[in-house]
Design brief:
The structure is a homodimer. The first copy, chain A, is of the alpha+beta class. In chain A, 48% of the residues lie in helices and 12% in strands. Chain A starts with 10 loop residues before the first strand and ends with a strand. Chain A binds a DNA duplex through helix 3.
Amino acid sequence: MSIFDEILPIYWYIDMKIEELGKLIKNRRKVLGLTIRDLADLTGISKTTISQTERGVRNPTFEVLQNIFEYLNLEMKVEVKERK
Amino acid sequence: MSIFDEILPIYWYIDMKIEELGKLIKNRRKVLGLTIRDLADLTGISKTTISQTERGVRNPTFEVLQNIFEYLNLEMKVEVKERK
DNA sequence: TACCTTGTACCATTATAAAGGTACAGATCT
DNA sequence: AGATCTGTACCTTTATAATGGTACAAGGTA
């Protein structure tokens, strides 16, 4: 039906690339069955900002990510990078 | 000698609060023995931005965090929040 | 006493994130 | 055909992040 019907991980790893972060947000939003308008209403963030953040065409602020993560039930962790 | 001589965790958890994120960055910078000027030179970010980000008095962009994390050898992970 | 380092305070300017509107294309309906 | 929904493409305006300079206070050192 769509790419979002595949088995979804409950854990994502982000290597600090803005495009990957956008894909993660869009994926998670779809999983929860929300539209961009829905998420905009929930967070109070404009649809423009959400759309562009999901596509990685803009550099969002921490506050924007904070709000989006809250309503997508996501949390961020920071670790010291392992040495290879 | 200072608060940074205590045993330091190799893992931090950030519950999306900008003040905590700032403390984490400052702590990590101190652990690596870097000054704000050092980090500014490494990342290309101004000392003003770094200082205010560490104190949580400003809302940094993702790009700024990306750069800081890179030179502090930190990485970000995103997880689905566990239900209580 | 200097002198140097570090971090913060303060300011003006520039760059750009965010908002909020309209319009449009594609898909999905009746 | 039309109507609706969704996401993107625009555009303008506003808010504010980021820069880069100076100055100053606290601390350490010679």
